[in-house]
Amino acid sequence: MTDMGSSAGALVLTVNAGRAKQADYTDAPAGTGIDKRPVDGPVRVSDPGPKGTGGSGVAGDTICELRHHGGTDQAVYAFAREELDFWERELGRPLTNGVFGENLTTSGLDVDGALLGERWRVGPSLVLEVTRGRVPCRTFAGWLGERGWVKRFTQRAAPGAYLRVIEPGEVRAGAPVEVVHRPDHGVTVSLAFQAETTRRELLPGILELGDAVPHPGLVRAARRYAAQQAGGREV
């Protein structure tokens, strides 16, 4: 990994985990673990295994809907406290760390400006790699109880970052976050999210980068878009 130096005092404010609860806004038989709250002490983080069978990478955290959440590429979810502060002002209500379902609430880290494939060292041993942004769902909207939430969150284009575990380790509140590798492609979490949702005209630029973008689903979407624009011809 290429050492990028300290990230200007970036740190983990809290490590958050949730337990399964029944709720009328989810169809998952086991309920939902979206209500994540700060936990004390060091927490083990490791690769949970493939999507569909693996849950959260954070020990003590529950993922109920394995079809859409958890697994290797969504092992950990990080969200910036600065974004929570923005939404506090917008919604006119207090938002505690973990309320967006994030495992790591960060401070001083440009989570949405992180590049796909960017790597962070969190504390002394844990290394995480950015995989994609979070796509809002019915459970998220139901949990917050805000009208039009999916649309509002999508338009903001600051979805937070899912991460895979490159080197397992422990993390605790106050752990420093250091960016230790940044790819050359320039595709940020926010840009990739917009390309998937509200600004599909960005997809051709993704296609030009090809395999340099470590997000197969996004590259497939770019190919489908290019084929549609070309009248159905294979690209």
What descriptors fit this protein?
235 residues, alpha+beta, seven-stranded mixed β-barrel, 23% helix
| Counted beta strands | 10
Q: Give the strand line-up of the largest sheet.
A: 1-5-4-8-7-6-10
Tell the overall outline. globular
Strand content: 15-25%
**Rg over alpha carbons:** 17 Å
Oligomerization: single chain
Secondary-structure element order, N to C: EEEEHEEEHHEEEHHH
Characterize the largest beta sheet: strand count, sense, and whether it forms a barrel.
Answer: 7 strands, mixed, barrel
Unreliable stretches, pLDDT < 50, 5 or more residues?
Answer: 1-6
Structural class: alpha+beta
* Helical stretch tally: 6
The helicity comes to: 10-25%
Give your account of this protein's structure:
- This protein has about 240 residues and is α+β, with helices and mostly antiparallel strands.
- The protein contains 6 helices and 10 strands, in the order E-E-E-E-H-E-E-E-H-H-E-E-E-H-H-H.
- The strands form 2 sheets. Strands 1-5-4-8-7-6-10 form a 7-stranded mixed barrel. Strands 3-9 form a two-stranded antiparallel ribbon.
- Helix 5 (about 205-210) crosses helix 6.
- The longest helix has 14 residues, at about 215-230.
- The relative contact order is 0.19.
Summarize this, please?
23% of the residues lie in helices and 24% in strands. By secondary structure, it is of the alpha+beta class. α5 packs across α6 (216-229).
List the helices and strands and how they pair.
Elements: E1 6-18, E2 36-38, E3 43-45, E4 76-80, H1 81-91, E5 104-107, E6 119-122, E7 126-133, H2 138-144, H3 149-156, E8 161-167, E9 169-171, E10 176-181, H4 189-196, H5 203-209, H6 216-229
Parallel strand pairs: 4-5
Antiparallel strand pairs: 1-2, 1-5, 1-10, 3-9, 4-8, 6-7, 6-10, 7-8
